[in-house]
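Hypothesis: this fold can be encoded by more than one sequence.
Test: take the structure tokens below, design a sequence, compare later.
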């Protein structure tokens, strides 16, 4: 358990560490009866097929990878009508089960906002399954606005956006 440790180090491009966090998260959720992702789809090889290595952000505490997300410059699957450069797109936000309850999801979302601001984009956008009230509440409590609910490849998702202030 990593409770009490608040010092975070953030790194880019470590798909292996991101995979470990996501697999642990998915396995933990499945054991609780709340399946989120299929662990076999979270291997470094599978993640590398769908997401660029440079988009992965990993948070470390005490030498252990504890949280991750991937930030994309485009998301034509979930946001097909967006113009290039308008937004960044967050996917695969996960917190290792041993580090949950420390506010790391919120800290990772704050980091994604900062990274989006640095790229001078107006929006941080994401999607989540429509049947995930806890995840939806996390994003809404972080200030994301519900845009709409759409079906993408047979999955009902709610799309969210957060305006990024420039200046």
């Amino acid at each position: 358990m990593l409770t009490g440790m608040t010092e975070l180090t953030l790194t880019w491009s470590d798909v292996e560490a991101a995979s470990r966090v996501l697999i642990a998260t998915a396995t933990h959720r499945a054991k609780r009866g709340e399946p989120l992702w299929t662990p076999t789809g979270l291997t470094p090889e599978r993640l590398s097929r769908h997401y660029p290595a440079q988009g992965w952000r990993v948070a470390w505490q005490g030498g252990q990878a504890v949280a991750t997300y991937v930030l994309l410059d485009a998301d034509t699957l979930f946001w097909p009508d967006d113009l290039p450069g308008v937004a960044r797109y967050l996917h695969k936000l996960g917190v290792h089960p041993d580090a949950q309850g420390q506010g790391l999801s919120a800290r990772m979302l704050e980091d994604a906002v900062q990274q989006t601001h640095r790229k001078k984009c107006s929006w941080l956008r994401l999607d989540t399954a429509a049947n995930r009230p806890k995840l939806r509440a996390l994003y809404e409590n972080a200030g994301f606005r519900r845009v709409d609910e759409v079906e993408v490849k047979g999955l009902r998702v709610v799309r969210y956006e957060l305006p990024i202030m420039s200046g």
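The chain has one domain: 9-163. The beta strands are 9-12, 56-61, 64-72, 87-95, 123-129, 145-152, 155-163.
Hypothesis status: open.
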